[in-house]
């Protein structure tokens, strides 16, 4: 579908003229689109005259967004510097320089930008022209801005500033140079990832969904296209225009867990197989925050990711995200979606039919695929009342053997997998850390050797290092702490 060239007359607020060719695969009720390929060329600039004159109409929220635990983040440092230098302590469009067009969506266009006087931090600026949107899209745009404003999570975008100028709303968020997971999949042989890479991305998305659900946000548009990749290879779930908010009542619920025998180790990243036979059971109280009473009738989402209850149109709730999570893991591992038909209608028919998901089982498949299929089957249960995740959310999904060995609280520190086409940039702070870590590694190694010589078990010591650079030793098996 060719988008028309948008040219603003010289006296309008912004000059964002460009041409863009877009196809996409999202549909919202009646309209259908797909985001499979995008090409665009552009010539754009903020109108300087406007930028300086815009102060009177700017409604700037950057000063009210505070994330104290991220005070050392370079992006925040840059924003703080710009606002400190600003005469009214606010961020304005004149503080930004647009570098290039990143892409277009249903609601607006996204540009790579930097602060004018500071080159060290990249941002993405989503520009929504409210004059071009119908009331329904306007409400989606407002939903997205509201949800972005509430988020504070490493796998979700940070809204640094919202700048309203005339009929434009501009949202300044994190820039993800790694592109999206859908494009990355297309670069892989068979369009699929290795099991350990799929598990890394699935685990991060699970944590992001857990956070959204704890806020009462049902996401409704999970798909690889909406998973952007940060420079360190960690994910950023994007696109919140199809979300809806519901009530959530957090509880502590009793749960039986397997307690490993003292001294037994757990492989952290490489696949660990089934649970240890040495485990004992104990009951613990677990935090559950899942919007189980969420209910909506509007049919939104992406065809291949729609849950059966969405297709039937009788109303849906939090379960649609757990269904989509099953489709997502399937696509990462099999290179296609499980109910895809030869047309959109066929796809919807396959989803609505009582037939369960089917798998192609390869002869020499990777260890862990049995667990992966079991998880997918449990997520793709057609009746949402019996679907994994619907009752107790991520708490239950995280405990599935597919995720065995992942140390959830440390997940943001894991090193991203090496995946063809994914260029990882190490942050300056990381290279400093890796220097410290390599010193620490050497220190542990020397200590381990010394103690081994004295007959002390090294595997107990190696468990002190919770970092994924370290080697985990489990009897005679050495497992490297990496996702690849
Ligand atoms: N933070 C970002 N960093 C890098 N690229 C981005 C970022 N946000 C968006 N993009 C790019 O811009 C494109 C348009 O994004 P946008 O969120 O407007 O629309 P979309 O993802 O197609 O979804 P929708 O139309 O549902 O809003 C994306 O496909 C992506 O390639």
TrEMBL record:
Protein name per its UniProtKB record: non-specific serine/threonine protein kinase
Enzyme Commission numbers on file: 2.7.11.1
PROSITE patterns per the UniProt record, alphabetical: PROTEIN_KINASE_DOM, PROTEIN_KINASE_ST
SUPFAM superfamilies in the record: Protein kinase-like (PK-like)
UniProt gene name: LOC101489786
Taxonomy, superkingdom: Eukaryota
Keyword ATP-binding: yes
Protein family according to the UniProt entry: Belongs to the protein kinase superfamily. AGC Ser/Thr protein kinase family.
Keyword Oxidoreductase: no
Source organism: Cicer arietinum (Chickpea)
Protein kinase domain boundaries: 96-403
Enzyme class: transferase
Catalytic activity as recorded in UniProt: L-seryl-[protein] + ATP = O-phospho-L-seryl-[protein] + ADP + H(+); L-threonyl-[protein] + ATP = O-phospho-L-threonyl-[protein] + ADP + H(+)
CDD domains membership: STKc_phototropin_like
Record-linked Pfam families: Pkinase
Gene Ontology terms for molecular function: ATP binding; protein serine/threonine kinase activity
Protein keywords: ATP-binding, Kinase, Nucleotide-binding, Serine/threonine-protein kinase, Transferase
């Amino acid at each position: 579908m060719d988008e028309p060239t948008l040219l603003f007359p010289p006296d309008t607020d912004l000059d964002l003229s460009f041409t863009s060719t877009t196809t996409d695969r999202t549909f919202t009720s009646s309209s259908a689109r797909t985001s499979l390929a995008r090409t665009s060329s552009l010539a754009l600039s903020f109108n300087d005259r406007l930028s300086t004159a815009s102060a009177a109409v700017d409604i700037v929220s950057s000063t009210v967004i505070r994330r104290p635990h991220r005070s050392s983040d370079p992006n925040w440092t840059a924003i703080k510097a710009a606002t400190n230098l600003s005469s009214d302590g606010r961020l304005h469009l004149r503080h930004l320089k647009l570098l290039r067009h990143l892409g277009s969506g249903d609601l607006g266009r996204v540009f790579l930008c930097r602060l004018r006087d500071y080159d060290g931090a990249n941002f993405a600026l989503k520009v929504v022209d409210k004059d071009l949107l119908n009331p329904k899209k306007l409400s989606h745009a407002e939903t997205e801005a509201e949800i972005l404003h509430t988020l504070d999570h490493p796998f979700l975008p940070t809204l640094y500033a919202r700048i309203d100028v005339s009929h434009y709303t501009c949202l300044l968020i994190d820039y993800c140079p790694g592109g999206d997971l859908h494009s990355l999949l297309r670069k892989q042989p068979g369009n699929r990832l290795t099991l350990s890479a799929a598990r890394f991305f699935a685990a991060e998305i699970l944590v992001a969904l857990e956070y959204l659900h704890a806020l009462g946000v049902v996401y409704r548009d999970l798909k690889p296209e909406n998973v952007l990749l940060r420079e360190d290879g960690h994910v950023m779930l994007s696109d919140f225009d199809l979300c809806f908010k519901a009530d959530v009542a957090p509880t502590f619920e009793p749960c039986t867990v397997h307690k490993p025998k003292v001294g037994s180790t757990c492989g952290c990243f490489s696949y660990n197989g089934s649970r240890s036979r040495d485990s004992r059971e104990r009951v613990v109280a677990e935090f559950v925050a899942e919007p189980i009473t969420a209910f909506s009738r509007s049919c939104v989402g992406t065809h291949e990711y729609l849950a059966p209850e969405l297709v039937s149109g009788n109303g849906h709730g939090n379960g649609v995200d757990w269904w989509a999570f099953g489709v997502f893991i399937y696509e990462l591992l099999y290179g296609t979606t499980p109910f895809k038909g030869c047309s959109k209608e066929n796809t919807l028919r396959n989803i609505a039919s009582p037939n369960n998901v089917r798998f192609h089982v390869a002869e020499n498949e990777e260890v862990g695929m049995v667990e992966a299929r079991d998880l997918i089957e449990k997520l793709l249960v057609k009746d949402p009342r019996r679907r994994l995740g619907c009752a107790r959310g991520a708490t239950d999904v995280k405990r599935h053997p597919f995720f065995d060995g992942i140390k959830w609280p440390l997940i943001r520190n894991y090193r991203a997998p090496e995946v063809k086409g994914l260029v990882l940039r190490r942050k300056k702070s990381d290279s400093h850390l890796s220097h410290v870590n390599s010193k620490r590694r050497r220190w542990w190694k020397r200590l381990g050797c010394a103690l081994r010589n004295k007959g002390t078990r090294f595997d107990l010591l190696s468990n002190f290092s919770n970092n994924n650079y370290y080697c985990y030793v489990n009897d005679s098996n050495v497992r490297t702490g990496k996702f690849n």
